[in-house]
Amino acid sequence: MAQILGGPTVPLDILLTSQREVGGLWLRLPKKPLLDALGPEVVQKPEDKQAPSRGAKSLGVAVNDLKQIGLAVHNYHDSNGQLPPRAVVDNKGKPLLSWRVAILPYIEQQPLFNQFKLDEPWDSEHNKKLIAKMPPLYRGPNAKLNGEFKTVYLAPSADDTVFPPDAARINFAGITDGLSNTIMVVEANDDKAAVWTKPDDLPLDMKAPVVGLVRPGQDVFLALFGDGSVRRVSTKHEPADLAAAFTRAGGEVVQLDDRPARKVSAGPKTGFEITNDMK
User: Fold this and answer.
1) 19 pairs with which residues across the strands?
2) CA distances, 227 to each of 20, 131, 144, 182 (Å)
3) pLDDT in tens, 145-171
4) Mean pLDDT of the chain
5) For 167, what's the count of Cα atoms within 13 Å in the CB-facing half-sphere?
6) How far is CA 244 from each of CA 25, 30, 84, 194, rounded to the nearest angstrom?
7) What is the distance in angstroms between the CA of the first residue and the CA of the last residue of the chain?
8) Cα(187)–Cα(154) distance, rounded to whole angstroms?
9) Residue 247: pLDDT above 60?
10) What is the pTM of this model?
11) pLDDT value, residue 279
12) Considering only 8-12, 150-154, 190-194, which range has the smallest mean pLDDT?
């Protein structure tokens, strides 16, 4: 502070300390024992200040990034008349590259997309050189995984999800449960992280749909829905209710949030239901 104000530097342990009233007596607390307990000051090196951050992603940033992924999926659909496939495949149906590569032009990464050889697998001699160019959008809350170019933004995959395992092409008209009721992408836990270009996602067990979503100390996960909204969804929902949110045409519409699920009534709402929805 002294240097900022233009004065001489003064060691902290000789500075005056503020007085404190303890039991009616005014005492002046010595700083040196406190400074000794804290240990030596850690000075950040200039080169550290210039290093790019790979730190943990905050909740707010994660929500925004998932929304950007949702917008990219919608723009892809507008341009192609269908959603991106779970995987770019060869003429024999073998998965080569992730849908995360397919939407690169829609997250302002056209130059990176152009560098991929779409007829080669993610780990070919050419394509594996591009793994280190993971867009910041795909970074998750774990700095170590980010440094390994792995993402936790995965598509839940089962026969009736938005991204089925056979890489079938789905359009929005085929999501008959409603876009706002159907989960497209999730923030999975760290154990399920995948190299971002690899056609790996989250295999969904409909009997235990929370597998791969539970994080230590948390009872919610982030989910990107078909309408582009991002919500915190409780892992405490009944398995059947949670599974219903992953299917695109199951006919069971459930409202999910960070509280217990409320099934949507098929008929006119009662006064009780209207009151409950307003809570």
Assistant:
1) 28
2) 57, 29, 31, 8
3) 999 999 999 999 998 999 998 878 899
4) 80
5) 18
6) 66, 63, 22, 25
7) 50
8) 7
9) yes
10) 0.73
11) 43
12) 8-12
* DSSP run (H or E) holding 103: none
Burial of 260 (0-12, 13-18, 19+ CB in 10 A): exposed
pLDDT of residue 22: 43
CB 231 within 8 A of CB 245: no
Both tokens of 149, joined, read 């170019």
CA distance 121 to 89: 9
Q: Which amino acid is at 16?
A: L
Q: Which residues pair with 222 in a beta bridge?
A: 232
Q: Where are the beta strands (DSSP E) in the chain?
A: 19-22, 25-28, 87-89, 95-98, 150-151, 153-154, 156-157, 183-187, 194-195, 202-203, 220-225, 230-234, 254-255, 262-263
Contact 257, 232 (CB under 8 A): yes
Centroid of chain to Cα 87: 19
Beta strand pairing status for 202-203 and 156-157?
parallel
| Residue bearing tokens 């078909």 | 226
DSSP code, position 215: -
